[in-house]
Predict the structure.
Amino acid sequence: MDFHKINVKFFAEKGSELSLHSFIPVFHRWIQEDKLEGFLVDVTEYTHVQEGPGVLIIAQEANYSVDEAEGKRGFMLAQKRVPEKKAEEHFKTAFRRCLQAASFLENEKEFAGKLKFATGHFEVTINDRLAAPAGSASQAAIEKVLKPFLDGLYGSGSYQLTGEKDAKKLAGFVVKVNTNPEASALLAKLK
Amino acid sequence: MSENISWKAKLQDKMPQDWAKEIDEFEANIELNKQGKMEARVFAETRLRRGAYGQRYDNGHRNDGKQIRQLKYPNQGMFKGPDTHWDAPGMERIKFPWGGITADQLEVMADLAEEYSDGIGHITTRQDFQLHFIHIEDTPDIMRRLAAVGITTREACGNSVRNVTACPLAGVCNTQAFDVTPHSKAIFQFMLGHPDAQDFGRKFKIAFSGCPGEGCGLVNMHDMGFIAKKVMVNGKETRAFDVYVGGGLGPVPYNAKLLFENHPEDEILPATQAVARVYGRLGEKKIRGMARIKFLVAKLGIEEFRKLVVEERKILPHDPRWTTLIPECAKEQETAAHKPSELKDGKYPEGFVKWAKTNAYKQIQPGYTTVYVKVPLGDLTSKQLRGLAELSRTFVKDTVRTSVEQNLLFRWVSNADLPAFYEALGKLGLNEANANTISDITSCPGTDTCKLGISASRGLARELSRQLDKEMESLPQEVKDLKLKVSGCPNSCGQHPMSDLGFYGVSRKSGSYAVPHFQMVIGGEWTNNGGTYGMAVAAVPSKRIPQAMRRLTDKYVKERQKDENFQKFIARIGKVEIKNVLQDLTVLPTHDAEPELFTDWGDPREYTIADIGKGECAGEIVTPAEFSTTAAESKVFEAQLKLDAKDYKGAVALSYDSMVHAAEAVIRNHNREYVGDADTTVDIFRKSFFNTGVFVKHVNNTQFAAFLFKAHDNKLANPNPDEAHRQVEEAQLYLEAVYSYMNNAEPGPVPAAK
Ligand code: HEM
Ligand code: SF4
């Protein structure tokens, strides 16, 4: 099964109180600096919406956002169109992009010491109801590709998966890892 | 869960067959365009007619705040319209006739926003929804998923009859003459894809209002509008409409003119058809800026225009739907989910009383309330859309409507349910009070996503809302009641001319720098169906607009005479005095003295007007003949796909359709209004173009026309693979011959038959 429309959201450990507005200039700067891999198009914001998609960078390959869904701030990547490649590569790409951008954001001068995303607490969903309609069959199919990937990244037995049960929501899992590894260590594995 | 299933296969049985076919055709057009077999201009109009619009930055460059960057869209050299890159994010407009939306539809909108857009479904100023940042190749599946719940995006853009709007209170309103919902439904169904509405020079917008005095229908700004009334005919009360025509906004707003007074209910469909024919025939086609019907009505004068419509009506071939459609539509009457009830006294949830004051409307039906859900900037998240669908199932019965104020209305809430409903809305972050007050601001997309945006209309609306909401408690009632609307440029999509305080984006220069501004347009009227438009008083830098607004409202509160409303106040004190009040705010400092003035609301980039692109609002000029060749192209392309799938019957049927469309193109080349079935088309082609030698003269080969006759005269019921392959090739050759004919033929009427 080709799960390429992957959403990953690393939950914020610190910085949930920072104004959403403060991310807007940073995202514009990233476009000026070509900061992220891929091709960034524009910034858009929904600061007026409660528990919404927050502030986003619209990129060709993915949307990056400081997301507020379910009242939980996090750094999110929503993978869009990807060039044809192997299914197992898709998770790697999505995690690499998301972790890299989240860690850039933490290290921006405006947020130094004030913002932290948990590298060991995140949500992975498949943003494609054709490939992964809600239900146990999809959950099992996702788990089958996700687990080997997470085993490689975090070590097998080091995390717990909680599956999505709501039939209206995207299929996927919340993942809680026993530790919060350094982003750089994870990124080194995702190269 | 199977591996390669597609939305097309999955939803095949859920979509109306003709819609499914149209979407397949559109998908085939996408494929043709990718293969370079379709002119970008023709593809642009094809997608616009299906609601797929361009978006800001699709021309391949963007100001990043420091420099203009060339955008590296992946498929460089591939376009979805003139100067519109294939991979650039675009917008999909989804029509909701009369603003009605069901729980199932809300849920599909939620899924689509999440999977293809940025997680937001946006309510527009004409009761539609929009999704932004969409890839063109995702649009066919979006359309299929919508079609499966009864929504078509057909004619959401382009030079066609756009969404038919109606007051969202229709049926429950205290001031209505009668419920105009069935009438708006009927006109929508009647005009959708109507042959008389396919050759307009520009878009055509229709609105219904249940009464003359309120503003929910805004008939005055529409190409055509209907205001309901009851009249006495032979001592009997009957339903009628005052029919208006030729209103419109845009840079120069026009007031609609009364076309027919007391027009009988069962005459409104033919009246619309007659108006469409006159407009299609006489409306400007070449100069886009002059092509709306308002220019035709102004040029001819309403008397002459009326005369033409009356004459046209007389010669319309009878259509039984004129009288059957409205009663049919009236059969589907809304009902409530719960019995009527009274709100019980007692302890209400916090904020409830304040909310109910502005957001609850007492229906004409005792025991029921219509609730206004205030939707900031018209934006709803997927979660909210799903939550609202649930609420719609729990508290009402598919009676939710969008409004031109970009809100949602829940009708038929039983009064005793109100506190629970309020609390449930609160869980979705949607129980904000102050609907229909000064802080409930309407805004077009502006520089956020619109190619034509000059200033950040949404940024301004967001900021003003924030400031006003904070101090709402302390505002005098007369200020609370003002209407505020913002457009990002003079085109008026935010409908600012019909508000007390309206703003539209303009730019001014200070030294070598551009400064975002808003022109203030004040004293417009929302009531009386948008009865009078406001006047422009001063262009003020964006960042100083809150200050400018405050000065005017303060002056109004201090100086208004007893019971004087804002329009009267403005008219009394006059433009000069208002200009004086704002004068100092219009003086520009240097860049270094006040750098924040050189950026716009919500956008830290240094401001420039270099991002403005060419709008697609006007559509592309594609002649009816070109539409026919395009249809022929996609049919023969689909026939190819059938061959590949070894469906020989399908291939033969589609290749025949292709040839008929190509023949139709030949006829339309000489008579752009031609519409006819396959038999008629082939007959005219045979007698006027083949027998006369006209076709052969330009094509130099009799064989090509013979392919059409062969396919038409001997329809293959059970073709073998060879026969099917042959006919598909013949259709292709015939189409080439038609192109060749169209390139060489002299203009003029259809030749006399032989
Ligand atoms: C020259 C180009 C354009 C003109 C003259 C124009 C004019 C208008 C006017 C006058 C209205 C509002 C009133 C009415 O419906 O008559 C309108 C509606 C609207 N316009 Fe435009 N417009 C243009 C281009 C655009 C573009 C490029 C966008 C954004 C992508 C846009 C977005 C809207 C929206 C969202 C509405 C409400 C539409 C609906 O739901 O049907 N317009 N337009
Ligand atoms: S008013 Fe101007 S900026 Fe706003 S949507 Fe219309 S064309 Fe775009």
User: Anything to note?
Assistant: The first strand of chain B starts at residue 52 and ends at 53. Chain B has a mean pLDDT of 92. The two ends of chain B are 60 Å apart (CA to CA).
